[in-house]
């Protein structure tokens, strides 16, 4: 009997999807379920995006496209990142992929030999660990608990980089915590990065337009331009434009890296489809009212979630300033019981919350932080308060 490749014993299905599947099943059984589980923006793109896709369909060339991404798309992306101060890049510094996940996967293949080390902070976006495992990289984790607002300190970064990882992977604003590094914090971290010239730096900053409270997005290359030689900036249409299913991701960075991703594309996907490309150009270049309005809505929802989190005794919840996640430390519940069932950990907690109260959240262990759970608050506004009330009631019922 032929066997699957060894790497498949390391590849795991997404933990987040498992929660979402369970919630879906309970809903299909007629249960009243409120889902705070999947990290989808839950809005559709603006009409001009659809109009561009329809127009492209009418003029379809039916041909293969560029492995890097069409010139029009690269130019739209360059103009887009120029607006957040990432200037001085050209088409040769960029590459596209089927979503940011695909770009990150390509980068892992392009930058890491088997056994090389990739370092990243905890909590982390689940796919970082999964991708590292598939490419057989060693992982160096930097624990950043709620007590330090889920943020990495310069001293932690220094200690991790002193071990000479090949890649340091950074995510700002963060999924799952929603935390955003201030410009001063970025400066302090960049001062450490410059000391370690042999480490690539990937900044997965796909939520860079989803900032609250007037905060401005900062990247290491803003504050230490000499880092441009090894910082790879990642972006995506998925969250900002309500286009997760359209699958468009980007990178901007050193020419050699963009070329490597382009070569990977030539062997994997060939190109992003023409119609999707047209929609992507329209999203990036057209009116930005939908993303702006949605971001304001997310900020208001963040406020509502925080009122409830702050009201629950024992819950420690750093206040997010971006994306659409809240990541409360709920370890105060561990060792208690709900309806006679013992809550030993985050998975027990999320299972009991879903089964008894019909609220789906993702256990923090999916993100490397088993003391917490993730609330993704993009559900319809009418469901938010009832869902939050159920969480508060669940806590009140613990004995
Ligand atoms: N990076 C982070 C931090 C994410 O949260 C996600 C999606 O949840 C991605 C990358 C992947 O985005 P895309 O839909 O562009 O593949």
Lateral arrangement of strands in the main beta sheet = 2-8-7-6-5-3-4
Number of strands: 14
- Average pLDDT confidence is 96
The major β-sheet equals: 7 strands, mixed
Report on this structure.
With 399 residues, the chain is of the alpha/beta class. It contains 13 helices and 14 strands. The chain has helices at residues 15-28, 47-58, 71-82, 100-111, 126-134, 154-161, 183-193, 220-223, 255-268, 274-285, 289-311, 346-357, 381-396; strands spanning 34-35, 94-97, 117-122, 138-143, 167-171, 200-204, 231-236, 249-252, 325-326, 337-338, 341-342, 359-360, 362-363, 373-376. The protein has a seven-stranded mixed β-sheet, sandwiched between helices. Strand 3, helix 5 and strand 4 form a beta-alpha-beta unit. The longest helix has 23 residues, at 289-311. The chain is globular. The relative contact order is 0.17. The model has no long low-confidence stretch (mean pLDDT 96). It binds pyridoxal-5'-phosphate (PLP). Pyridoxal-5'-phosphate is lined by residues 39, 99-101, 125, 171, 175, 204, 206, 236, 238, 244, 249.
């Amino acid at each position: 009997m032929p066997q699957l490749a060894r790497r498949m014993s390391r590849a795991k299905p997404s933990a987040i999807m498992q929660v979402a599947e369970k919630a879906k099943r309970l809903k299909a059984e007629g249960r009243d379920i409120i889902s705070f589980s999947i990290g989808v923006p839950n809005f559709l793109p603006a009409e001009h995006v659809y109009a561009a896709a329809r127009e492209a369909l009418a003029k379809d060339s039916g041909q293969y496209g560029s492995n890097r991404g069409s010139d029009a798309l690269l130019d739209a992306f360059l103009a887009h990142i120029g607006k957040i101060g990432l200037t001085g890049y050209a088409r040769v510094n960029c590459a596209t992929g089927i979503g940011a996940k695909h770009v990150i996967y390509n980068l892992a293949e392009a930058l890491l030999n088997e056994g090389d080390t990739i370092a990243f902070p905890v909590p982390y976006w689940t796919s970082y660990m999964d991708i590292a495992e598939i490419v057989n990289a060693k992982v160096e984790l930097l624990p950043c608990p709620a007590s330090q607002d889920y943020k990495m300190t310069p001293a932690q970064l220094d200690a991790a980089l002193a071990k000479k990882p090949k890649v340091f992977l950074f995510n700002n604003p963060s999924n799952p915590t929603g935390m955003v590094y201030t410009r001063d914090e970025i400066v302090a971290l960049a001062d450490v990065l410059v000391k370690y010239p042999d480490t690539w730096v990937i900044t997965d900053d796909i939520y860079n337009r989803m900032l609250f409270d007037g905060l401005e997005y900062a990247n290491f290359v803003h504050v230490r331009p000499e880092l441009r030689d090894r910082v790879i900036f990642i972006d995506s249409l998925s969250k900002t434009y309500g286009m997760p299913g359209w699958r468009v991701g980007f990178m901007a960075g050193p020419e050699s890296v963009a070329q490597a991703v382009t070569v990977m594309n030539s062997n994997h996907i060939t190109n992003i489809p023409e119609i999707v490309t047209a929609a992507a150009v329209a999203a990036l270049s057209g009116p930005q009212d939908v993303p702006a309005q949605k971001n304001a809505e997310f900020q208001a929802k963040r406020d509502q979630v925080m009122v409830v989190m702050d009201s629950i005794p024992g819950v420690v919840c750093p206040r997010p300033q971006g994306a659409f996640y809240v990541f409360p430390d709920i370890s105060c519940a561990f060792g208690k019981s709900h309806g006679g069932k013992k809550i030993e950990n985050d998975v027990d907690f999320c299972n009991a919350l879903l089964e008894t109260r019909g609220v789906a959240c993702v256990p923090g262990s999916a993100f490397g932080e088993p003391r917490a759970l993730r609330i993704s608050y993009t559900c319809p506004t009418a469901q938010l308060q009832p869902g939050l009330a159920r969480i508060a009631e669940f806590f009140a019922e613990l004995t």
